[in-house]
Amino acid sequence: MTDEITEKPVVCATALGKSYTDSSGAVVALGGVSLLVNSGEFVAVCGPSGCGKSTLLLIIGLLLKADEGNLALIGQDIGGMSASSKSSFRAQNIGFVFQDFHLIPYLNVMENVMVPALAKPIGDAPARAKALLEEMGLSHRHDHLPSELSSGERQRTALVRALLLRPKLILADEPTGNLDRDNADAVLSHLANYADNGGSVVMATHDQEAMKRAGKRLHLDDGLKVVPD
Amino acid sequence: MNTARLVAREILHRRWSFVLGTLAVSVSVFCLLGSLAVIESFDRATDRKLGEINAETLSILKVHEDEIRKAMKGLGFNIHIYPEGQDLSEIYSKGYGKHTMPESYVKRLADSNIVTVNHLLPRLTQMVEWPEGETSVLLFGVRGEEPIAFRGPQKKGELIDPVAENEIALGYELHHRRNIKTGEDIVFRGRKFQVARVHQRRGGIDDITAWVSLPVVQDMLGKPGEINSILALECNCESLDRLGEVTKEIKLILPNTQVIEVESKALARAQARNGAKSLRIKEKGKFLKDRENLREVREGFANFLVILVALLSLVSITYLTASNVRERILEVGTLCAIGIGFNRVLQVILSRAILMGMLGSIVSIGMLALSGEIFGEGNVFDLIGIGFYGWLVLMISVPLMSGAAGWLPAFLGARRAPAEVLRND
Questions:
Q1: With an 8 Å Cβ cutoff, is B8 touching chain A?
Q2: B337: which chain A residues are within 8 Å (Cβ-Cβ)?
Q3: Secondary structure of residue A159 in the 3-state scheme
Q4: Under an 8 A CB cutoff, do B344 and A119 touch?
Q5: Which residues of B touch A88 (CB under 8 A)?
Q6: Binary contact (A58, B423; C-beta < 8 A)
Q7: Do A118 and B423 touch (CB under 8 A)?
Q8: Which of A97, B49, B242, B255 shows the smallest number of beta carbons within 10 Å?
Q9: Residues A147 and A101 sit within 8 Å (Cβ to Cβ)
Q10: Does B201 touch chain A if contact means CB atoms closer than 8 Å?
Q11: Given an 8 Å threshold on Cβ–Cβ distance, is B423 in contact with A115?
Q12: H-helix or E-strand containing B191?
């Protein structure tokens, strides 16, 4: 759904490493992971719980800094980027979808999907929000609070929010983890459709059905390496 | 969607903690402004009481002054002028002397350039029988004050109240025993008089005295144009030997007289007046000191209370903001993930605390308006008296302080790495 398809890789990660420290000492969450995602690709990152899928997505989403390795997004090296530049970059280029939706509880559906416009105001945001909500089958839910929605509706709302500013990359962390099969299929279809239209999707999942919907599958084994399917 | 809408929605969503914070601020501001009103009210009450004390003091002093003037009229300020041959022991024993001198002496004194005397009152006095009343009476022939020529008319008015020719004034024993009232007609030694005044008890010879016009008394006693003393009042002598000074000047004008200084009741009253004045000044000083001490105590307590309440209010704002941030940590992480920068997130969180301050100030003003006269009499805003700029400073500083109180938890919340809360591993 991006208006512009770039020739440069959307994600170019090389040997990304990340460790955490807890009471038992340093825990390696991600060790030497490399990843290349081009425009129009729907990539599923698979692996068991705790293998570092979310960590990888957070690093790619510029919410977490890797201890090792290099990362370039849309041809731009993000190594020396300031925090505010990262925020601005995220607002312009990256959309997030979370397993727990993370909708703002006191805003209705329309207001929730309009939140990204706070970071990057665009003139047609309300019209686009309405169109996306209609496309997702949520046009009758504009004024409803998240607490009044089903899980599938919440996730579709979160998806509309992620798509509002036409990002080049969608990072979806277990987007079907809390959904029934039908709703999961609907969300996956929207993500696949987004990729088909030139956007890039990186989805962390351990759902076999979800993996099948992705065009490219990567297995993250104990956070150490990426094995092409 | 804009920041204001986001903030407003959030406040409505978590309204009770917002109300609590607003109340904390309003109570704090209410205490601050209330303490100002109480202190001002106290100061005004002190000023009012001081005004009353001053007015009372002036009134008392005025009464004393009037008494002194009256006393001078009766016993003289300082001197009596008697004929040269008068035996003074007779005067001390009977209250008057039998020797007389021409009434023209008064005129001679008044027409001279005498400077040591201010008022001249001629009198003819004699103890007589009042057959109709079956008693003895000290008869006083008096007339109005003889004006001293070179000084011009009396500005302060006559010291003595003259008795008209057909009138009489009676001492206490004379009218009281016979139940005589002012305005009644009585017969005194064969002559008819109207009672012009009846005097209160004075506890002395005045109580058996009758005051009658001097020419009438002169006629009654067969001593026309004669007097037996001149009362001279308000001597202006500054030297210690004031009697010598006055005597010297009078003797030059009236060689055949003698001058006696009489113990002055006026002096005693003046001393009493000064004593009263001094006492009032002491009372006033004590009152002021007591009020000042009380004010210090009140001010100290008010300051303590205001600081305590303000601290509690700030702590509660800090706590409520921290609690709010804790509740919203996922929201903050999500906003960061969406690309909303640190400053905007901080602004969203802090707006709540600042709005608590603004609204709290307004509520406190409403509370003051509804509080009536609990802080003292009058309009509470008039008592607070901080003026337009004072209110402006208040309306700006309270939200700022409230924001400052919430700044640390807001800063820590906005600064918290979103990955910590969003990570799904």
A1: no
A2: 61, 63, 90, 96, 102
A3: helix
A4: yes
A5: 339, 341
A6: yes
A7: no
A8: B255
A9: no
A10: no
A11: no
A12: strand B191-198
- A2 close to A168: Cβ distance less than 8 angstroms: yes
Q: Which two tokens stand for residue B306?
A: 């205001």
Contact (CB, 8 A) for A146 and A154: yes
The shortest C-alpha distance from B11 to chain A (Å) reads 9
Instruction: Give me the interface pTM, i.e. the ipTM.
Output: 0.89
Of B2, B14, B417, the CB nearest to A118: B2
CA–CA dist A191, A178 (Å, integer):
16
Tens-binned pLDDT, residue by residue, of chain B (425 aa): 788 999 999 999 999 999 999 999 999 899 888 888 888 888 888 888 888 888 887 887 777 666 665 554 444 456 888 998 888 888 888 888 889 999 999 888 888 877 667 778 899 999 999 988 888 999 999 887 777 666 666 555 555 567 888 999 999 999 998 899 999 999 998 899 999 989 988 888 888 999 999 999 999 999 999 999 988 876 665 554 666 777 888 888 888 888 887 655 555 555 666 677 777 788 878 888 888 888 888 788 878 887 888 888 888 889 988 889 898 888 999 999 999 988 999 999 999 999 999 999 999 989 888 887 777 777 888 888 788 888 888 899 999 999 999 999 999 988 887 887 777 65
* Separation of alpha carbons B37 and A141, rounded Å: 54
Evaluated on CA atoms B367, B373, B374, B376, the torsion sign reads: positive
Query: Minimal Cα distance from A118: which residue of B?
Result: B2
Looking up tokens 């005693």 gives: B268
Q: What is the DSSP letter of B193?
A: E
Question: How far apart are the CA of A147 and the nearest CA of chain B, in angstroms?
Answer: 12
Task: Report helix, strand or coil for B232.
Answer: strand
Residues in chain A: 229
- Partner A contacted by B6 (CB < 8 A): yes
d(CA B189, CA B203): 25
Which residues share a beta bridge with A17? A68
